[in-house]
Amino acid sequence: MRRTAWLVTLMVAAAMVLVAAGPAVAQVTTPGPDFNNDGFGDLAVGVPGEDIGAVSDAGAVNVRYAPGFGQPFGLTLLTQDRPETADRFGSSLADGFLAEFDGTVDLAIGAPGETVGGAAGAGAVSVVRNDDTGFLATGSQLFYQGAGVPGTAETGDGFGAAFS
Fold first, then answer.
1. For residues 55 and 114, what is the distance between their CA atoms, to the nearest angstrom?
2. How far apart are CA 144 and CA 122, in angstroms?
């Protein structure tokens, strides 16, 4: 009986602490890359098989911004300026900071089916720039195998299929 009374008292005290603490969401931020710099982790999901208009398997990336206090989820769809069939943009993703250390998280997006210099499926990686409000429509950079060296990108290389 004494053990039961002690256990009940402990449970009631723990419940009072939880009620007094309020919702956990108000006290912590979510982990993950913070693309819009609001203190909450966001999520980027590649959709490499997404059709863009009549272009099949062009690919896209859905960016889901975590809600702040009382704010709804935000959603951004990233696509290539000139999508091509089977580019598979969004096959791989990597977030990080670019060399200028501007404090924002940029996003590298693989498109292993990208045609480069006539080589179908040579592949490429786009780095989409970011600022305090989210992704920018301009200033992205494109990388591919042997950039600047003609003939280095070969058909079917699939550059950008994976990041480590």
1. 13
2. 8
Q: Which of 128, 118, 108, 107 is nearest to 157 (CA)?
A: 118
What average pLDDT does the segment 132-148 reach?
81
| Domain span holding position 95 | 30-143
Residue (of 117, 97, 115, 100) closest to 160 by Cα position:
115
Region 4-11: what's the mean pLDDT? 36
Closest residue by Cα to residue 89 from 108, 75, 106, 74 = 108
Q: Are 125 and 142 in contact (CB under 8 A)?
A: yes
Judge if pTM exceeds 0.85.
Answer: no
Tokens found for residue 4: 């039961």
Q: For residue 99, what are the CA distances in angstroms to 95, 103, 105, 131?
A: 13, 10, 11, 14
pLDDT of 78 over the 80 cut:
yes
51-55, 66-70, 155-159: the lowest-pLDDT one? 66-70
Give domain status of residue 56, yes or no: yes
Q: Is 148 domain-assigned?
A: no
Count how many domains the chain has. 1
DSSP type of residue 158: -
Is 8 part of any domain? no
> Considering the domain boundaries, does residue 12 fall inside one?
no
